Amino acid sequence: QQHVQQQPFATSISSTWEDACGTTTKSDVSSQRSLATKAYDVQNTWSALFLCICSLGMIGRQTTTMILAEEEMIMQVQNKCTKQTTRVPYMQLDSVDDQV
Fold this sequence. Notes:
This protein is α+β, with helices and mostly antiparallel strands and 100 residues long. Helices cover 28% and strands 24% of the residues. The protein has helices at 9-21, 26-30, 45-54; strands at 38-41, 63-68, 72-78, 83-89. Strands 1-2-3-4 form a 4-stranded antiparallel sheet, with no helix packed on it. β2 (63-68) and β3 form a beta hairpin. The model is unreliable at 3-18 and 27-31 (pLDDT under 50).
């Protein structure tokens, strides 16, 4: 007697759907290579100079850094008075230019 092992119904439907549509599952996506986090100085020098002059030097030197993380873009603006962090998931960006 030959024993046949049956797959659960949901598993067989999903694998058939993936084969037909060529889609990937969440586990397939997570197994792909992750992106390295990169940081860039995106400071507008004229804006920083203007803010420093208008505040009579009280805010000091302002820095603006863009960090490209695995799933989001992080903008950090920092000076002597404040530190502001803005997080934007890549899905919410209108477009991404790879060359500037």
